[in-house]
Amino acid sequence: MFTMTLGEAAQVAGRRFVRVALLPSLVFCFLLVVVAALGGERPPGALLRAWKSQPIEVKALLAAGFLAGVLLVSAFLDSAQTALLRCAEGYWGRIADRSLGRIGRRCHRLRLLRQAGEPTHHLYPPTTRLHEVRPTRLGNILTSAELYPQLRYGIDAVLVWPRLFPLLPGGLGGALATARAELSALLVRALLSCVFAVVGAGYVAVQGGPSALLLICLWGGGLLAWASYRGALNAAVVYGQHVRVAFDLHRGDLLAVLGEERRPGPEAERDQWKRICLFWHRGVPTHHEMAPAEGPRTAPDLPEPRSESSMSLTQLTVAVAVAAGVAGVLVPHL
User: Fold this and answer.
1) Nearest CA-CA partner of 32 in 221, 196, 176
2) What does each C-alpha distance from 31 to 44, 124, 136, 173, 188 come to in angstroms?
């Protein structure tokens, strides 16, 4: 099933770590050092002369500390990719979900209703599933891909995907891995850009550094985070399309491995997959008597989308960043 040997897999994993975590962490730490040198109380020239006057042992120790910091940040980012993706999808804590999450879901529900006649199946859940809308665009793109096999074939993607993925051919599996790595890399860049904007601008403000440097850190980091997130949306669309193709073409391969024959007709196949998923989820035998199907869930009534306007989380973030930058420049002069 897998065309890669263990050594080749290790090499691919190593390249993925370098691209997704190590290089972004190196650039992030280097930029923080530059901001610390430019925004501190001592001028950069004095810092350079102090560096040159240090003995080689001190220089080696500082360089080793810098590299250790880069490796620690890289290791943290590599281990936190799943949590980062969940956060980007809009799975937040209770307080954030009741405040920011409510704003985001309302905005995207209204946007989905306004685009009801347009082809948005790869960007949002269907209009019959408004309760599945997530507060972020990335979450909606991945949710639409997750709902696709359930709506088409009665397949619970969360249960079936870990069993289906090892059966995929090398070409499709490689395309999925590439799209997933690209999505992770862009989300890591977005996160580091946000952290750089907050930490760099905060340091310059506390140290009383140049206002131009403060704005470069805050708005430059925010702009880079926005660009990285936009790239992550495109990567998520590609990943979602690969997931749909995997279920369309290879769900029969999983049935063959399980010793099941695909039942003829769409309704019979949907019933078959529902029984299999229920067996995996709760241990219910596949020959049990199925309960009558429930009616589709509906979302609560919403106002007419054309007469409503709602601020998105992106617009809210931009407004906060602009206000913070203006306040950081004006407050020291008051």
Assistant:
1) 196
2) 14, 37, 29, 36, 16
CB atoms closer than 10 angstroms to residue 301: 5
CB 158 within 8 A of CB 247: no
Q: How far apart are CA 178 and CA 186, in angstroms?
A: 12
Find all residues with CB under 8 Å of 19, minimum gap 6, and list them: 181, 185
* Six token digits for residue 303: 């106002």
Residue-wise pLDDT for 213-260, tens only, equals 899 999 999 999 999 999 999 999 999 999 999 999 999 999 899 888
Half-sphere exposure of 44 (CA within 13 A, CB side): 9
Q: What is the Cα 37 distance to its own chain's centre? A: 32
Q: Quote the tokens at residue 35.
A: 């901001």
Answer positive or negative: Cα dihedral of 125, 190, 174, 86: negative
Q: How many residues does the chain have?
A: 334
* Residue 229 exposed, middle or buried by CB count within 10 Å (0-12, 13-18, 19+): buried
How would you classify residue 154: left for phi > 0, otherwise alpha for psi between -120 and 50, otherwise beta? Answer: left
Contact 163, 259 (CB under 8 A): no
Residue 289 DSSP label: P
Report the alpha-carbon distance of residue 112 to residue 121 in Å, rounded: 10
What one-letter code names the amino acid at 200?
G
CB atoms within 10 A of CB 49: 11
- How many whole angstroms separate alpha carbon 230 and alpha carbon 227? 5
Q: How far apart are CA 31 and CA 164, in angstroms?
A: 42
Cβ neighbours of residue 78 closer than 8 Å, sequence gap 6 or more: 17, 20, 21
CB–CB of 314/191 below 8 Å?
A: no
Low-confidence ranges of the chain (pLDDT < 70): 1-14, 116-117, 286-311, 328-334
